[in-house]
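Q: What structure does this chain adopt?
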Amino acid sequence: MDTARVVPRAQQRLGNTCICRTARITLDVDRLYDVETARRAQFGLTESQHETFVEAYERGYYTIPRKIDGGDLAAGLDISHQVLSERLRRGVRNFIENTVVVGDEAE
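A:
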C-alpha cells in the first residue's frame, strides 16, 4: 500500500500531486490540514474532545497504571463521569475514522 505524508505548504502539495501522477499513485484528498497553525489539526475531533484528550493525557489517564481515574478526571473538567466517557468514546471514534479507517472502510 502506498502512503503519502502530510505536507504543510500549498506549493509542496502541488509538487507532490505531480510526483504521484508520475509514479502512477492514485491520490484522493478528503481533507487538508495546516498542521503548523492548527494545534489540534482537526482529525475529526471537536474542541471539547481535543481538550479532554489533552487533559486526560497530561494528568496520566492513559498511563499504566493510571495516575488519575475517570471520576477525578471528570471532576477536574467539571463534567459528569458519563459525559467524560461519552466524549472520549466519540473522540476515539472520530479520530479512528479520520486517521486509521479510510474511505469505504469507515462505513
